[in-house]
DNA sequence: ATGGTCGGTATCCGA
């Protein structure tokens, strides 16, 4: 089973690259973040023409998440939204079961800066995520993928000194991520690959070509699923070429 | 020479 997670920074602006990705990899599930689309604008027809159905959680111009699955595969028990999240209208969490595996696509709030009013909302979202992960981990095997907007360790940013006093690396966020892990999941990419590399690079300043990135897109899975992961890595080709997202897709073969 | 970018029914704000 091949599963991918990708923050596409607008599914409509990225449609050509999304279709290219589906054609190249034919994943059994593609977890999308930042679809940035209202539900009545979601590109169901174009995806259907490529052989994929979508379970999406879409509420407007920002955020938005989805799970794409081949047409001939059954998708059951969709859940849209996360119990206890501070701003449910932002559409940052969607779940569905595919081939007996519970899947989650999540887009954790950015937080902007440590002093911004939205930063406490990021921490509250992570608290709600910990509670839901504990429930899911107790219920059976599952795999969560998404943009966590946290670099788990200093090795996951291009220059940790540049991030002192900023979001994505703060002790507050890392403590919350550790609490999520303690709820019963493993960082799959890190589990499989010794030096996982980055998943995001700023559009500005030639950051990608200069290697100035971060690893903020993660797969978190119950240990049984993590042990079954044979390969895990990013496809850098999708950070190159025409109209790339600022994130590269992360894939895992189970 | 310390800039440089995208996407959003936008002309600033969010990432």
Structure report:
With 254 residues, the protein is α+β, with helices and mostly antiparallel strands. The protein has a single domain (2-253), classed as Deoxyribonuclease I, Chain A (4-Layer Sandwich), CATH 3.60.10.10. 24% of the residues lie in helices and 26% in strands. It contains 6 helices and 14 strands. It has helices at residues 15-25, 44-49, 118-139, 171-182, 188-192, 223-228; strands at residues 2-7, 29-33, 52-57, 65-70, 75-80, 93-98, 101-107, 142-147, 186-187, 200-201, 213-214, 217-221, 231-234, 250-253. A 6-stranded mixed β-sheet has the order 3-4-2-1-14-13. It has a 6-stranded mixed β-sheet with strand order 5-6-7-8-12-9. Strands 10-11 form a two-stranded antiparallel ribbon. Strand 6 (93-98) and strand 7 (101-107) form a beta hairpin. Helix 3 packs parallel to helix 4. The termini are close together. It binds one DNA strand of 15 nucleotides through loops.
Concise overview:
The chain has 254 residues and is α+β, with helices and mostly antiparallel strands.
């Amino acid at each position: 089973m091949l599963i991918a997670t990708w923050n596409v920074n607008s599914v409509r602006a990225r449609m050509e690259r999304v279709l290219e990705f589906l054609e190249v990899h034919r994943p059994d599930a593609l977890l999308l973040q930042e679809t940035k689309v209202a539900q009545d604008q979601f590109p169901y027809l174009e995806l259907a023409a490529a052989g994929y159905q979508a379970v999406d959680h879409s509420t407007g111009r920002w955020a938005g998440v989805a799970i794409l699955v081949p047409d001939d595969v059954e998708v059951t028990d969709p859940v849209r939204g996360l119990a206890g999240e501070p701003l449910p209208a932002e559409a940052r969490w969607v779940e569905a079961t595919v081939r007996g595996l519970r899947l989650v696509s999540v887009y954790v709030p950015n937080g902007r800066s440590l002093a911004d009013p939205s930063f406490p909302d990021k921490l509250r979202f992570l608290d709600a995520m910990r509670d839901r992960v504990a429930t899911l981990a107790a219920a059976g095997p599952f795999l969560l993928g998404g943009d966590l907007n946290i670099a788990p360790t200093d090795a996951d940013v291009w220059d940790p000194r540049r991030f002192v006093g900023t979001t994505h690396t703060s002790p507050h966020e890392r403590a919350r991520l550790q609490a999520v892990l303690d709820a019963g999941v493993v960082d799959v990419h890190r589990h499989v690959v010794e030096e996982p590399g980055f998943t995001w690079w700023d559009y500005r300043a030639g950051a990608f070509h200069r290697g100035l990135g971060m690893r903020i897109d993660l797969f978190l899975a119950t240990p049984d699923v993590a042990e079954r992961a044979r390969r895990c890595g990013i496809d850098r080709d999708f950070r190159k070429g025409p109209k790339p997202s600022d994130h590269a897709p992360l894939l895992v073969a189970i």
